[in-house]
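Anyone up for a design puzzle?
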């Protein structure tokens, strides 16, 4: 397991695993500027200056490709700055601006947690003591499960593949499997059971998310809108024919999943 984990982490790329949020900042700025046109607006220059400071910090983080203590501290700072911005301006900032700055905060949390997952997994891959190795890997999987349960929509396909690879490595590892079956149960057995349980939960969350994406993609409403745009005609027969053909694709996809 240790070699497989090391290879997975070394080939991972933080910048390609979590969706960027650069487009959020112009929207926040425009929303704030519109709100500040009111006579009752408070310190618009200060709010925009605070937003610019958060944006500059985000750009710095995005430019850093290698994990480091400095990068981790910057992510923590970004998370705190977004929270302070929400608290400071929530009473008069538009809801959409508050929602977008909260997305910035969540992005920082996810990025920081993923760094933690990789640090624990990499530490586990070079640990000689088997119990300590299992403890480290379990800690990383628990962090990964937390974001898989709540924030998978922020992940790119590559990010989900990384999570799958780590979870599948834990489930497929024969040593971990044998430890989990060991009786009487001791600390190393408990850690092995925890690893397999967390890994299975991660895979379940990812599959559930991807299946829901598929269901949303092939919902009647989505198919109708797509067909209506594609057909470019008022002829309902042709529209329904196209809709039915795409519905067949949906059924075929579900059969593959099952």
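Challenge accepted. My sequence:
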């Amino acid at each position: 397991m240790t070699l497989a984990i090391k290879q997975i982490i070394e080939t991972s790329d933080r910048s390609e695993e979590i969706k960027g949020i650069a487009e959020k900042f112009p929207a926040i700025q425009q929303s704030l500027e519109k709100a500040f046109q009111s006579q009752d607006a408070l310190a618009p220059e200060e709010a925009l200056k605070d937003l610019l400071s958060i944006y500059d910090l985000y750009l710095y983080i995005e430019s850093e490709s290698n994990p480091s203590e400095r990068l981790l501290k910057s992510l923590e700072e970004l998370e705190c700055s977004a929270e302070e911005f929400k608290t400071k301006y929530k009473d008069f900032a538009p809801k959409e601006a508050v929602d977008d700055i909260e997305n910035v905060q969540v992005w920082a949390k996810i990025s920081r947690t993923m760094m933690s997952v990789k640090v624990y997994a990499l530490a586990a891959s070079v640990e000689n003591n088997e119990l300590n190795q299992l403890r480290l890997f379990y800690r990383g999987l628990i962090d990964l499960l937390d974001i898989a349960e709540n924030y998978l929509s922020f992940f790119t396909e590559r990010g989900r593949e990384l999570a799958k690879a780590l979870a599948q490595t834990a489930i497929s590892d024969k040593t971990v499997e044998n430890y989990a079956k060991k009786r009487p149960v001791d600390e190393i057995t408990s850690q092995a059971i925890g690893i397999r349980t967390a890994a299975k939960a991660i895979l379940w969350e990812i599959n559930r998310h991807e299946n829901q994406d598929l269901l949303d993609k092939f919902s009647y409403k989505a198919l109708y809108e797509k067909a209506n745009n594609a057909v470019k005609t008022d002829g309902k027969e042709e529209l329904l024919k196209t809709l039915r053909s795409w519905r067949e694709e949906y059924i075929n996809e579900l059969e593959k999943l099952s």
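A detail worth pointing out: The longest helix spans residues 95-126.
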